[in-house]
Amino acid sequence: MHAVPRPEPTTLPDTAPAPNPGAALWLDLYRRLLAGEERKPLLQSLCAGLAPLLGLSRVHLSRKLASGVIAIEACSQEDALWLELQRLPERWDGTVAGDGPAARALRNQGPALMVTSDEGFLPWRRTAEAEGLRAAAAWPLLAAGETWLLQLYSERGNGFADDERLQLIDQQLAELRRFLDDDARLREQALLAAALRMAGNAGFITDLNGDIVWSNPAFSRLTGYAAEEVRGKNARILKSGRQGTRYYRELWSTIRAGQVWSGETVDHDRDGQRYVIHQTISPFGRGERISHYLSLHDDISSQKAAQQLHELESGTDPRSGLNTRASFDQALEEACAGQRPFGLALISLRRFSEAAQAMGREMEDLIVGEMSQRVRNGLPSPHRACLSGTGEFLLLLDSDSSAGHEALLNTLRLALIEPYPYVGEDIALDYRQVLLRGPQEGRDGEALLRQLDRRMADEPVARAQRQITAR
C-alpha cells in the first residue's frame, strides 16, 4: 500500500490584519450615526475615545476652511489650549499665528511632529506647557471631499517616538477617513430622501436591474401604488406599451454610461389608466461606481391632452408643414378600422439630424425644414406624413399595391439623400426605412407602430454614397 502523504502544517500569512483595539469605539459611533445622531456629538465622542486608546492627553479633530484657517471641529476636552487655539487658530501657510504641526502637515502632505519648545509653536507654548504638554503632532487626511487634520498632544517630549503608537495612529486614521466618508454619504442620502419625500414630483429609486427600492408619497399619488407594494418590483410595472424597442434601448444605454436621460413617457397607473410624464433618470452611486438610478416624474397629462386637441383642430404642424402627430394617429386608427389596404412606413435620418442638432437650434430647424419640404414634395395627396422624432418621419400610404409603396419610398429616399444646403462641413448621411402593410387582423394603430419600431431597431444603416455638403 502506498503511504498517504501528511498535509503540510497550515500557517497564517504574515499580512493577516491585526485586530483593531478601537473596534468597540467605532462600532458605537456607527450605531449612533445610523440612528440619526448629529455630527458634532459624534466627533466629540470620537476624540474623547481616541485619547485613552492612543495613550495621549489631548486629541483635536480639525478641518481646513476655504479661508485657510484650521478650525477645530471637536476635541477630547475643552481646556485652556483648546480656547487658545480658538482665539489664535493656525493657518495652512503658517502665517499670522505661528507655524504649528497642523500647518506643516498640510504643506508637507504628511504627518508633522514637534516639541512645544519649537519656534513654530511659540504662540501656544505657554498655554500648552501650563497644561503639562510637551509634544504636538498632526496627520492630514482627505475625507468627504474636505481636508481634515487629526491633532495629537503628549505630556512627553518623545511621545511620538514609539513605533507601536505610530502604527496604532495609522490604523485609527484609516478608520477615521472611512467614518467621515460614510457620515457625509449617509447625511447626503438622508437629505436627498427628505427632499424627495416632500417633493411635489413623483420620484423613485431603483437598483441596477430596475427593481424599485424606494419611492416617495407623490409617486403613490400619481400611480396608485403604495410604497410597500412596489418595493422589490421592477419599474416595468408602469410600462404602458406605448414606447418601442429603440426608446428603451437608448434609455438604458444612456444611464448605464453614467449619463442623465430625460424624455416624455406614457405610463399607466395601478388601474391601467395612462398618463404622460416628463421623466428624468439620473445614475448615482459611490465614487465612480453606479449603484442606483433616481427617476423623477413630472405629470404633463393635462398639457399633452390640450396639445393633442389643438393638433387635431389645426391638422398641420407649423414646424414641418406636415400632419400633426395627433391627426396622423387619428388617420391611422381610421385606416386600421377600414378594409382598404394601406402602407405604414418609418423613414429615419436620425444620426444625420442629431449631428445637425449639435450645431445649434437654428441649424437644426433649417435641416428639419429642408427634410420636411422634400417629404411634402415627394408625397402627393391622399398620402399622409408627420415628423415623429429627431430626423424621423411616419408615412401613411394610401395605395393598393406593395409595388406602389416601394416606388414611392424609393422616390423619397433619392430626394432625402440629395446634398443639403446650410451645412458648412461634411456630415455622413445615414438612411433607414421600414414598411408594413395594413390592415392586419387584430392590430390597431398602436400595435402597428410598435411593430414598425421593432423592425427599425434591427434595420441596418444604409449609408449614402455622398456626404452632406454646403452648396
Q: Which value, in Å, is the CA radius of gyration?
A: 34 Å
Helix content: 40-55%
What do the pLDDT scores average to? 85
CATH architecture of the largest domain: 2-Layer Sandwich
Largest sheet features: 5 strands, antiparallel
Count, helices:
15
**Overall CATH class of the largest domain:** Alpha Beta
Instruction: Fill in the CATH topology of the largest domain.
Output: Beta-Lactamase
Oligomer: single chain
Which spans of ≥5 residues are poorly predicted at pLDDT below 50?
A: 1-17, 463-471
Helix and strand sequence: HHEEHHEHEEHEEHHHEEEHHEHHEEHEHE
How many structurally independent domains? 3
Structural class: alpha+beta
Shape: elongated
Q: Reading side by side through the largest sheet, how are the strands ordered?
A: 2-1-5-4-3
Q: Would you report the number of β strands?
A: 15
Strand proportion: 15-25%
CATH superfamily of the largest domain: GAF domain
User: How far apart are the first and last residues' alpha carbons, in Å?
Assistant: 94 Å
